[in-house]
Amino acid sequence: MTMRARVCDLLGKRPNRQARVVTFSHKRNKKVQHVNLQTKKYFSDELGRSVKLRLSTKGMKTVEKYGGVDAAAKKFKLDLKKF
Questions:
Q1: What is the number of structural domains in the chain?
Q2: According to the model, what pLDDT value does residue 62 have?
Q3: Which of these, 36, 38, 34, lies nearest to 15 by C-alpha position?
Q4: Is the pLDDT of residue 50 over 70?
Q5: pLDDT over 90 at 2, yes or no
Q6: Domain membership flag for residue 66
């Protein structure tokens, strides 16, 4: 098993590393805001099999908006054969 970065496969969303926590005393501490990643299986009609993607919740909404994983992958130039 290989370690993968916390990046959305479809949209390419990455963690926000410039975020800060501001306390009551106005101290500023750095923190990382991670992407809300979910593992989801979709059936690809073009490949004839299911593909397993790590998508952000925004990416899942995007797949539903375009009417399927094949149309969304074509729009965002994603090769589904790798998944």
A1: 1
A2: 96
A3: 34
A4: yes
A5: no
A6: yes
40 in a structural domain: yes
Task: Please name the helix (run of DSSP H) or strand (run of DSSP E) that holds residue 62, with its range, or none.
Answer: helix 57-66
> What percent of the residues of the chain are helix, what percent strand, and what percent coil, each to the nearest 5?
25, 35, 40
- Whole-model pTM: value is 0.82
At 32, which CATH number?
A: 2.30.170.40
Q: Which domain holds residue 43?
A: 16-76
CA 12 and chain centroid, separation: 6
71 assigned to some structural domain: yes
Q: What are 12-46's pLDDT values in tens digits?
A: 999 999 999 999 999 999 999 999 999 999 999 99
Reference 10, options 50, 64, 69; nearest CA is 69
2 within a domain of the structure (yes/no): no
pLDDT at 20: 97
